[in-house]
Amino acid sequence: MRQYRTSFVLKCQFRAEAPDGILYYAADDHTRARLFLVLYMEGGKLHVDMLTRTGVFWRVKTDHSYADGNWWEVTVLRINDFLAILVPEKRDYRNNGLDSTNETSIDLASPLYVGGTDSDTSFLPITEGFTGCIRQLEISTPQQDETDTYEFDLGNPDDQYNVGQCYEAIHLGIAFNGTGFATIEENFVLTSNLDMSLRFSTVQRSFLLLLLFQDAANYFLMDAEDGRIRGHLRKNNVTTTIRIAHVETGYEVCDGEFHTVVFSANRFQQTGLDDISIFGNLQVGGVPDAASLASPDLTQPSFRGCLESLVFNEVTRHFRQTALTGHVTSGCPARP
């Protein structure tokens, strides 16, 4: 990377499903960066941070937000101390206003990271990985009378971690392949004043949709049996089951279209239960092995489909904060 020490143009095409995350990171050292270049999103806006051998830190950022699920191309231009960022389609351009003639250098050592990094980046405002898709990344530099361009082979990296398949078109949400689950929140509490709604699509007739597991004697479970949604509250080894009738398009929810299920926890109190409080880890789409083995009533298969939204008491849970297992991906393939 020494040919990029003083000037280069970095281009990246991306589609973001969350407002925060690292797209590109390179530094002079894996554990203790003294020189670095990073492209990341914070609050949906694109940022470029750079620290060169002069010891001066520079940052530029876009005016607009790009965490909207659409494809965008961003260009980063660096000439010595001059640093600029451009999203051509939006004419969103910003630079640091410095003179490009003052020669400064930055040595970017391999490896170069795309979509996140396991390096120590505690000095950055954003440390989490990128949620979305990156389909093109190239870096160019002038070489006498021509431009030398290197396009990274994103489909054949030296190493990767938690990288899923990238689809040309997606539906926002989280996708399940029938063998995984997602942890929405730890230490979640179910009370009688909880209202919830879930919007999902599937072609399964029977599946496990949601589980709040305290122990084998106490849990709340939402599942489907033959296309009909049910809620189960197990309290002190006694299970109460309620069929959930409020589905926008009827009971049959296995047609591959999106359906919304609405449920109020106070329906269990209407059956005569005084105490319905349950606390534990809230999971959707499936259950961990330990919970599954501990409770004989969890007989439905794991969910296979797309969960678009999950709302508790009119507050939407953001899936970017969700802990996904290896068989669950952010973003669902869009139907043709």
Give a description of the structure.
This protein is an all-beta fold and 336 residues long. Helix content is 3%, strand content 51%. It contains 2 helices and 24 strands. The protein has helices at residues 266-269, 289-294, and strands spanning 7-16, 21-27, 36-42, 45-51, 57-65, 71-79, 82-87, 92-95, 109-114, 132-143, 146-151, 170-177, 182-190, 195-202, 207-215, 218-225, 228-235, 238-243, 258-264, 278-284, 304-312, 315-316, 323-324, 328-333. Strand 21 and strand 22 form a beta hairpin. The two termini are 42 Å apart.
Short structural summary:
By secondary structure, the chain is mainly beta. Helix content is 3%, strand content 51%.
- Major sheet, described briefly? 7 strands, antiparallel
Strand order of the largest sheet: 18-17-16-15-20-13-23
Structural class: mainly beta
Rounded radius of gyration (Å): 24 Å
